[in-house]
Design goal:
Layout lengths: L1 E2 L2 E5 L5 H14 L9 H6 L1 H7 L1 E7 L2 E10 L12 E9 L8 H16 L3 E6 L4 H9 L3 E2 L5 E2 L5 E8 L2
Parallel strand pairs: 5-6
Antiparallel strand pairs: 1-2, 2-3, 3-4, 4-5, 6-9, 7-9, 8-9
Length: 166
């Protein structure tokens, strides 16, 4: 998938470090996760995620400018997916990718995967501080599912959103 000079594709092992650094930069650098949180190690460890989940990257001018982790229900990285749901996590767009439609392209690719593979819905968890992401999810038709909201180990409230696709 390519749009406006941005290509969405599966991550390559040589890009694991760049994806990990970008994910930490967005989550920690933009104040979503405390730098002392044990979650930072998980955000940085792209190789472990890639072993049991699908990682997509957005590439512009040869650089990784965005990424998302796609987890099928019942797998290690599916936190909230129930039977028939495809979950995505760790959606990030670096500063150099902002305004290029990278986030939208990554989420649309996840939705396409869900439709192609016959999943009934796509689900995600978002944080209260992720306002740009929330606007994107709302625009694409995701709806808040308050009865599925949960809290991180730190006590931070997390919002679950869902989009029926089939």
């Amino acid at each position: 998938m390519s749009d406006a000079g941005v290509t969405i594709r599966d991550v390559e092992p040589r890009e694991y470090a760049a994806v990990g650094a970008l994910t930490v930069d967005v989550y920690v650098g933009e104040g979503h996760v405390n730098p002392e949180s044990p979650y930072v190690a998980e955000l940085a460890d792209t190789a472990t995620r890639a072993a049991s989940a699908e990682i997509l990257v957005a590439v512009a001018d040869g650089d990784v400018v965005g990424s998302v982790t796609v987890a099928r229900a019942g797998t290690e990285f599916a936190d909230i997916a129930r039977e028939g749901e495809l979950e995505f996590r760790m959606l990030v767009v670096g500063k150099q990718g902002r305004g290029l439609g990278v986030g939208t392209a990554l989420v649309r690719k996840v939705i396409d995967i869900a439709r192609t593979e016959g999943w009934r819905a796509v689900v995600l968890t978002t944080m209260p501080t992720m306002l740009d992401a929330r606007r994107l999810y709302d625009r694409l038709g995701f709806e808040h599912v308050p009865e599925r909201d949960w809290k991180a180990m730190s006590g931070l409230p997390l919002t679950v959103m869902r989009l029926p696709v089939n």
